[in-house]
Amino acid sequence: MKRRVGLVTRPRYDEMLYSAWARASAYLGSPPRARLHDALLGEDVSVFDDLPVGIGLTVRSGVFGPADVEGAISEWTLHPYHAHFAPIERTREAARRMEGFGQWPHEPLGCGTAAPARLRFCGACRADMLDQHADAWWRRTHQLPSSLVCPDHGETLMESAVTRERRRSAYVAPTDEECPGNAPMVAVIDGGVARADLLALARAGDDLLDMSCDTHPDDRRELYLQRLGRLGMLNRLGEAKLPAVAGVMDARWSAVLGLWPGVARDGRCVQGWLGALLMGGHGSPPLHHLLLEGALNWAERWR
After folding, report:
1. How does DSSP classify residue 115?
2. Lowest mean pLDDT, pick from 113-127, 263-277, 281-295
3. CA within 20 to 30 Å of 68's CA: 14, 207, 242, 300, which one?
């Protein structure tokens, strides 16, 4: 039986599994991905950055230290974020696919918002990392589609040179070359109100990485409708008055709604994502839920 290389490194605080692989690759001289996998796993696998497959084999190899599959999926990937608002049977199916090979884990979760086109980083986080370690790493929270600022520092996230195509074919560590100080910002943030709103969303998204939720989307929709009812935003049939809800959405998030494709201002969300979310939201991405929950919290506070 072929002898594999032993423990190479352990994932660090909030580190993506992709990032741990990238650091392991750098420590071993950056061999081609197939050779790296052959040395550490005994066979090649396809690795996707946010919801990777082959985790069962990775865990059994011990390359990243003692772990179990459930813990690895929870702590090294974005599964908790994408799974939070999905039906439990879909979250389990996605986890099953992540443990094995060949099937796309995103499909059962209904991830309507794609992972960022380029890996993101926070300049302040990189400085903190390099104060304590010889190298930096890619943080999970910076890759959340709903996060445009760092939840710890409030700084606008920056786009690295690592595109989606590059990271699906090779492991690229967050070096100074890949994460230059003059890298483009992920968004133009206009004013302190917008930055405060984005920080609130980033922290809410970050919280999802450490949470589990078994609430079925149908039950969550009922909770949303109950809250809307207390705010006087239901019609006689018990359905949401979408124009009124959109007005609250615009009032709460007017400074930032235009920063994501498909999330528009001025009530134009009524016939799109907001209506779909309040009809059940089985395929609604976390961003939509976070926006609605933030708007409801704001309306309840100020009614």
Report:
1. P
2. 263-277
3. 207
Taking the chain, what is the end-to-end CA distance rounded to the nearest angstrom?
A: 69
CA distance 284 to 288: 6
Domain that holds residue 226: 217-302
- Cα separation, 186 vs 149, in Å, equals 9
What is the rounded CA–CA span in Å between residue 152 and residue 147? 12
> Which stretches does DSSP call E strand in 152-244?
158-163
198 and 224 inside one domain? no
Residue with tokens 């929270």: 141
Helix (H) or strand (E) holding 206: helix 192-208
Q: Grade residue 75 by pLDDT with cuts at 50, 70 and 90.
A: very high
Domain termination site, one of 109, 128, 163: 109
Q: Do residues 99 and 133 share a domain?
A: no
